[in-house]
Each structure stands twice: as structure tokens, then as C-alpha cells.
């Protein structure tokens, strides 16, 4: 699990809950009609905006923001150094048993194409197509939450209008003014909280994860093409090290 995501949600919601508690009765902010307007309306608008199969993938997409360990650049570097040394000693065909056991599907596919004897240019075309399509899928997933982050505050305003209309219609009965005004204000609160503490931060985390994954795939692609061209393991190492940050190089 990604601790940053969990800690961020816990801190933000925890501090808001603490502020409500210190300010009086936090149950004043518990309003089912307001929640139905904002959350239900946001989900409904998302279903209108996207095909149902894409919209229903929201939970699966959100799970990527909570993923923990990802393959590090150091692990990739060590894998390629081992494979390049073996290929130099025993030939490309000797890599096949090791390639089949690689956990990363992108790296496994690229090296299998190399073992099968494809030209480096053809390998690069295939793998870049894979990367571009993956990036498109990731952006589509992030766009769903970006849309929800837009809808939630708008639904909050709609709830405010509903509450104000109810309040003005019943001005002759003072006992109804409070509940109507509560819906009017709390829907705006719910919309702002959901947009700025859940949906939009998820967009940022998903896009950051996508950039990380693309960077790692670029590193893997460079290693795959270098092995396909039969380059010296020392040259391969220098190429792959260039993808690491100064901190990662210093940690070697």
C-alpha cells in the first residue's frame, strides 16, 4: 500500500473532523439529503459522460493510487546487467529460460522479441506502441476522476439552490427554515470536500504514477534495444544509469 495516499486522506479528513469537533457538534454536518445530491449527482453525471464499462472501472482505477512497491530503477539495472552479460557469453538464445520468468510483462515481451530474432527497429516500434496505448489508458482513467472533481462542486451549488428555494417557499413556517438552510450550505461543503480531498488528488496521484511507469518503461526499452544490438554490458550500464536520479546513483 502507498502510505502517502493513506496518510494524506487520514490527515485531511482527520483534521477536518477535529475542527468540526472543536467547533461544536460535528453531527450538524451529517445531512443525508445533501450527501445524496452531491454524491449521487456526481456519479450520475459521470455515467452520462462516460460509457458504463469505463465508469464502472472507477474503483479498479482508484486502486492504482494505493499501490505500494513498484519496480525500482536499481532492480531494472541489475536485471539488464545480468542478462547482457549472459547474452555476451552464451548468445541471445540462452536468455529464453530467464526471460520467461521475468515478472514485468513489458520487459518480458521486449526480451522475448529480441530472443526471437526481430530487428531492433521492429522491437522499438512494437514496444513504443504498447507504451503509447498504456499512457492513453492511464489518462482516460485519470480523466474520469478529473470530471468527478468538476461535477462535485457544481452539484454542491445545485444543492445550495435547492435548499434556498425550499427555504424561501416556507418563510411563513420558521421551523422549516433551519433544515432547508442546512441542505443549502452543507451540499456546498460536501462538494468542495469530495472534489478537493478525494477526486482531484486522485487525478494527481494517478498521473504521477503513469509518468513513473513510462519512465521505467523507457529505461527498459533502452536496455532491450541495447541487448538486441549486442552492445557491451558496460555501455548498457552507462545508458541505464542515465535514467536514474542523482540520489539513486549515489545509493548504488
Automatic annotation (TrEMBL):
Spell out the protein name for this chain: Chemotaxis protein MotA
* Domain of life (superkingdom): Bacteria
Pfam families from the entry? MotA_ExbB
Q: Which InterPro entries does the UniProt record give?
A: Flag_MotA_CS, MotA-like, MotA_ExbB_proton_chnl
* Upper lineage: Bacteria, Pseudomonadati, Thermodesulfobacteriota, Desulfovibrionia, Desulfovibrionales
A GO biological process held by the record:
bacterial-type flagellum-dependent swarming motility
Which family does the record claim for this protein?
Answer: Belongs to the MotA family.
Q: State the membrane topology.
A: Multi-pass membrane protein
Q: Subcellular localization, per the record? A: Cell membrane
Q: Which UniProt keywords apply?
A: Cell membrane, Flagellar rotation, Membrane, Transmembrane, Transmembrane helix, Transport
Its principal location?
membrane
